[in-house]
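Sample pair:
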Amino acid sequence: MREFGYERALDVSGAVAVLGADPEARFLGGGTNLVDLMKAGIERPARLVDVRELPLDRIESTPDGGLRIGATVTNSDLAAHPEVRRRCPALSQAVLAGASGQLRNMATVGGNLLQRTRCGYFTDVSKACNKRVPGSGCPAVEGEHRNAAVFGASEHCVAVHPSDMGVALAAFDAVVTYETAEGPGELALADFYLAVGDTPHLETALPAGALITGVVLPPAPVAARSRYRKVRERASYAFAIGSAAVALDVRDGVVHDVRLAFGAVASRPWRARAAERALLGRPATGEAFAAAADAELAAASPLPQNAYKVPLMRNLVVAMLTELAELPEPAAEPADSDQEAGR
């Protein structure tokens, strides 16, 4: 591990100023991923700027009925928050599926978004990896790729993003807020992660030196009828081989609203928009659910060892949609309700 300096940020502007003056510095939240990467020699920051004491640890309702989640909120606090559990159970379930209790107590929302792949070639510095050393190659394409991507990969990288939380956030159009020396900014989560292309080492669209300050979940009534399910190779703490965040609102037997996002199948949380389009306004039947899954998975490009992910995701999506369709239909809101009048 490279010798490094350490300091604790006292305010957001001060934290951003440090990285502006020292490009080799890194922000430190819970350190549950960064410190491991430092030990392995993958990350080599000259300085760590501890942001855990910044006033970014609150979960608040927004004026339009959404939720604002601070970047230093711990995963444990996020999963347990009553409003998160009520308004978006899939998010709470995703966080609880993501790690051990000890890690959830330390890990932060901002850090979770920035965690890096657990691909064995990336984490082994003796191996080539375009994500770690641009231009060195991607041995996973011809080597071990059982848990590699089936969507959005390229010949330069087939690694998957490890976040469970990110999958649930993707399903509900989350927006990432950040601060730079030039002022605040925001990125829709759909734009936050970059496509792999021929530059897999460039992972996010976050400006250089930016500090994530939070995540905003826009109001989405369908989110209250959501689930997150994770498939892994063992029942204990492990990364997913496939996961899904699903929300479904069925009225009079017809799909009124639906959200679908997949995990462990791409370099970023994968929003299943083709499946959503195939379902919206259609009868909520097993046949329709299977057809929607097939519409999304038609774009999959599996490798020999990870072709199992296609039927796995199909079965997972159909099972979750069927489960949600059997829930009681929500009570219709009066047309002149305060909620409707405020939109």
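Confidence is low (pLDDT under 50) at residues 333-343.
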